[in-house]
C-alpha cells in the first residue's frame, strides 16, 4: 500500500485534471494550467515571481535535509503509525473532513486536545476511536446523525463548534454511501483499483466522490 504516502491532508483538494471520462470534469484545467491562467487574468491579486523562486528553493532545501519527507507523516502523534488497511480508512475519513478551519480573529478557535485546525480534526477522530466509536467504518458514518457527530467533534471548551458542520456531515454521508454502493464499503478497494499509481488514485477519488471536486468557473475557464 505504498500509495498511502500520497494522502497528505490537503493533497486531494487541489486536483483538477483534464480529459476525464466524467463529463462534469472534462473542461477543468490541471493545477499548473489553473495557476498560469489565474495569474494572467486576476484583477485583485498579484503573484510575485521572485517569491515563487524563494519558496521553491526553501522546499528543495528542506527535502534535501530530510525535514520534508513523506515518511514523516507517521511521526506526528495524531497520525496512524501503521501503514495497513486501518490507516487507509482513517486517512480517507480525515481527508473527507479536512477543509476550511478558518476562524475570524474575534472568534474562539476550534480546539481538541490543544490542537487547532487539521490536527484538531485528527485528535477528534482518534478520541472517537478510543471511545469505541467506529468512525472509520463506511457503514457507520454513511448514516451518522448530527448529535453523534457533534459529540465526536466536541471542542475543549465544550462550546466552540467545528466550522461548517453541515457540510462535513454531508460529505461523510456522500462518501460513505458511495463506498458501500460500489467499493464494498472500503476505501482500500479504491487504492487497490489505482494499481500503485498515485495519478490514477487521484483521478478515482475526484471522479467517484463529488465532494472532492474542488473547482470553480473563473473568467471562462474551469
Automatic annotation (TrEMBL):
PANTHER family: QUEUOSINE 5'-PHOSPHATE N-GLYCOSYLASE_HYDROLASE, QUEUOSINE 5'-PHOSPHATE N-GLYCOSYLASE_HYDROLASE-RELATED. This is Queuosine 5'-phosphate N-glycosylase/hydrolase. It catalyses: queuosine 5'-phosphate + H2O = queuine + D-ribose 5-phosphate. InterPro entries: Q_salvage. Catalyzes the hydrolysis of queuosine 5'-phosphate, releasing the nucleobase queuine (q). Is required for salvage of queuine from exogenous queuosine (Q) that is imported and then converted to queuosine 5'-phosphate intracellularly. Pfam families: Q_salvage. One of its GO terms (biological process) is tRNA modification. Belongs to the QNG1 protein family. It is an enzyme of class 3 (hydrolase). Keywords: Hydrolase. Its EC number is 3.2.2.-. It comes from the Eukaryota.
